[in-house]
Design goal:
Layout: H1 3-7, H2 27-35, E1 38-40, H3 53-58, H4 65-74, E2 90-92, H5 94-107, E3 112-119, E4 127-136, E5 142-145, E6 167-169, H6 170-178, E7 187-188, H7 198-212, E8 221-222, H8 235-246, H9 250-257, E9 267-272, E10 276-281
Parallel strand pairs: 1-2, 4-7
Antiparallel strand pairs: 3-4, 3-6, 4-5, 8-9, 9-10
Helix pairs in contact: 2-5, 6-7, 6-8, 7-8
Organism: Streptomyces variegatus
Region (Disordered): 1-25
Protein name: Transglutaminase-like domain-containing protein
Length: 285
């Protein structure tokens, strides 16, 4: 991990004028902070809370941490370190848990970045679309943290050190699919009609590459026809995704992201599941 890059905020993770003096510095405690600030869109029933429809439609469209923090301020004036009742939380997705944790880690001195891929611990036999935070531990090693499952989920591992075979980065799932070890039809949203398959895995490969280069997209962002639901893939699409999945270094990820087939343009389409397709202009990097 390039320490300078992953310690530096991006336009997406930048917390703005957030006063970090009251925040803990230890990653585990920061994950607990995040878990007390966000409720996942699908968790209302688990917590006995009826999520207002408006929040389901709009909260998770917040592309930037500054927007997440603004919404949290509107819903309560308690310190960020104080766990909130569900009604005072931001209603988001796994990407929002991961982005906010990444932001707070960076702000308090721990190098971190987002990873897009697939989790095997939500539905048996399924590679579920998921995002986590990768951070540098005090011993210098890299760890995967899942703030969404930090408490309240029965997982057989430490959420601050998710095993690499429990959460797989998108490139590893792509390689497994291409080699016939994983059925692409088991990759995507287990509850989403048609939101599965090799085209879906490719989309996550490109989103993971973008995140590694400081462009931390929404899960439904796209910028070419092959990122639409069920789009057929060309030989060029397959070869480009093969190259990304094989890359293992900062230099390789930067070089690949400079390829017009793999980079994210300033103008994209957000295929929002709740608000429909929308054209979006991203910030200059």
């Amino acid at each position: 991990m390039n320490e300078d890059f992953s310690s530096r905020q991006t336009p997406y993770s930048d917390p703005g004028n957030l006063d970090t003096t009251g925040l803990p510095r230890e990653p585990r405690r920061l994950a607990a902070v995040v878990r007390g600030l966000i409720i996942h869109q699908g968790e209302g029933g688990l917590l006995g809370y009826a999520v207002p429809e408006e929040r389901l439609h709009h909260d998770a469209e917040s592309r930037y941490v500054t927007e997440i923090l603004r919404i949290l301020r509107e819903r309560g004036d308690t310190a960020l370190t104080e766990p909130r009742a569900p009604g005072g939380r931001f209603v988001g997705t796994c990407r929002d848990f991961s982005l906010l944790l990444c932001s707070l880690l960076r702000a308090t001195g721990t190098p971190a970045r987002l990873r897009c891929g697939f989790a095997t611990y939500f539905v048996d036999g399924w590679y579920e679309d998921h995002w986590v935070t990768e951070y540098r531990a005090p011993d210098g090693g890299l760890r995967l943290a899942d703030a969404q499952v930090f408490s309240g989920y029965d997982v057989p591992f430490d959420p601050m050190d998710v095993p690499r075979d429990a959460f797989l980065v998108a490139g590893d799932v792509w390689r497994a699919c291409r080699r016939g070890r994983v059925d692409p039809r088991t990759c995507g949203f287990s509850a989403g009609e048609g939101l599965r398959g090799l085209w879906f895995v490719r989309g996550n490969v490109l989103r993971d590459l973008a995140a590694l280069n400081g462009v931390e997209l929404l899960p439904w962002d796209g910028w070419d026809p092959q990122l639409r639901k069920g789009a057929p893939l060309t030989e060029d699409d397959l070869a480009a995704a093969d190259a990304v999945a094989a890359a293992r270094s900062e230099d390789a990820w930067r070089r690949l992201f400079a390829d017009p087939r793999l980079s994210v343009p300033a103008g994209i389409i957000s295929y929002s599941p709740r608000l429909g397709d929308r054209r979006v202009t991203l910030p200059v990097r």
